[in-house]
Amino acid sequence: MPKFIATLAGLLTSGALLYYFQNEIENNTSQIRSKLHKTKNQLEDSLPSQLKDSSVSDQNQLIHPSKRPNVRPQLPIPSITQTQNYINHRFIPTFKSSWNDQVANIANKFTSFDASESAKNAKSFIEDKWNKNK
After folding, report:
1. What's the structural domain count of the chain?
2. DSSP 8-state class, residue 77
């Protein structure tokens, strides 16, 4: 019965923590997206009127930077979908496996813990220290 209780406690704790962190990640991701969208809009609004009118032609030139005179080609910026793929396919599975290993180790220590033996060891240790101090 104690193994069942320890396993159940471990499952409930890990489930609650997993739900909490998943909710936090979703909230943080939505906040980041809204800040990016707001910043993009601010940058577009801050463009001079000449650039706003030619925004379509500039977008075509960004695709082919070699056609623009005296402009260095820009390095590609990794997209959000690449980051999401990395998180979903690499980071989260690694985190889950290490988390599950740690929860299993803790549950194993709880189930193999012998309170009476530990109490005897503590009692003998305290008695030894008490007798040395006298």
Report:
1. 1
2. P
